[in-house]
Write a structure and sequence with these properties.
Blueprint lengths: L1 E2 L27 E7 L2 E4 L1 E2 L2 E2 L1 E2 L12 E2 L12 E7 L2 E6 L5 E3 L4 H4 L3 E2 L6 E9 L1 H8 L11 E15 L1 E2 L3 E2 L4 E9 L2 E2 L7 E4 L1 H4 E5 L2 E3 L10 E7 L4 E6 L2 E6 L4 E6 L4 E6 L2
Antiparallel strand pairs: 1-7, 2-3, 2-6, 2-8, 4-5, 8-9, 9-10, 11-13, 12-13, 13-16, 13-17, 14-15, 16-21, 18-23, 19-20, 19-22, 22-25, 23-24
Length: 273
């Protein structure tokens, strides 16, 4: 039996930008292995301890593959199976037939999880939020840096990484027949040149994925804000990612704010092998 880390299912974590999520911690993706025969289930032991592949959160990181000889005494009519339990869900490998049964997404068995990010970039654009005259009318002509140069945000960017995964860092398992489309983008939002203000993007209103079966929006507020997760059918062969920046520019700590919305969405087709 070979024990190894799963394929990459998510972008690498940035310790300076990855938080604990919008309202919950990351899901534990640790795998526990069992030997099942009929109604009996025994832990697979390694050096006398249960065989557990630690992964506190995605991505699991590199782990060299190791081979193990599994020895067990079973009744002649037993139907042995290896069971892998992750986040409370079992996946069962029949040792006679090689068939895998699972009550959750099977996309990792059928398709590559890492998708080449070879799609065109979006050129940079600028969206005017407030002119200097408008800000001076609001704050007065003596407000200095609060009004100087007006207020705008930049947008554009490119797709840097794409994954088609059965398990998401915050949502856990995708349901059967579905997968998590995880996309990391770069350069999608440029903060105002006027550093007194901060732009806050409304991800649910800004990003959509369109496919043959419908439209998906981000499953949760992105954490960090450049990693997006969409629930899609596991057999989808291409999607269209649309980005129409929508949000607010605020004067911390929320002393004033102005809404913005790009006039048209930026789109790109993403093929999924």
């Amino acid at each position: 039996m070979t024990v190894a880390a799963p394929p990459a299912l998510a972008p690498s974590r940035d310790p300076f930008s990855v938080g604990a999520g919008p309202d919950r911690p990351p899901r534990d993706a640790t795998t526990t292995l069992w030997l099942e025969a009929g109604s009996e289930r025994l832990p697979v032991l390694r050096d006398g301890e249960p065989a557990v592949v630690r992964c506190d959160e995605l991505p699991c990181g590199d782990r060299p593959a190791t081979d193990h000889l599994l020895i067990a005494t079973l009744p002649a009519d037993a139907e042995p199976a290896i069971v892998a339990t992750v986040d409370g869900v079992d996946q069962r490998l029949d040792l006679r037939t090689g068939e895998v049964t699972s009550s959750v997404s099977r996309v990792a068995y059928d398709r590559p999880s890492v998708v080449p990010a070879t799609v065109p970039a979006w050129p940079p654009r600028t969206l005017a939020v407030r002119t200097q005259a408008q800000l001076e009318a609001e704050f007065g002509t003596g407000a200095g840096d609060l009004t100087r140069g007006g207020l705008d945000v930049g947008y554009g960017g490119r797709i840097a990484e794409i994954y088609l995964a059965p398990f998401d860092r915050f949502e856990g398992w995708a349901p059967p027949g579905h997968a998590w489309l995880v996309i990391r983008v770069e350069g999608h939002l440029r903060q105002p040149a006027n550093t007194s203000w901060r732009a806050r993007l409304d991800a649910a209103a800004s990003w959509t994925v369109t496919h043959d079966a419908g439209v998906a929006t981000p499953a949760y507020p992105p954490t960090p804000d450049d990693v997006l997760a969409f629930l899609v059918p596991d057999d989808v062969v291409s999607v269209t990612l649309a980005y129409r920046p929508t949000g607010t520019v605020v004067l911390p700590p929320d002393a004033a704010h102005h809404e913005f919305r790009a006039p048209e969405p930026l789109t790109v087709e993403v093929p999924l092998p």
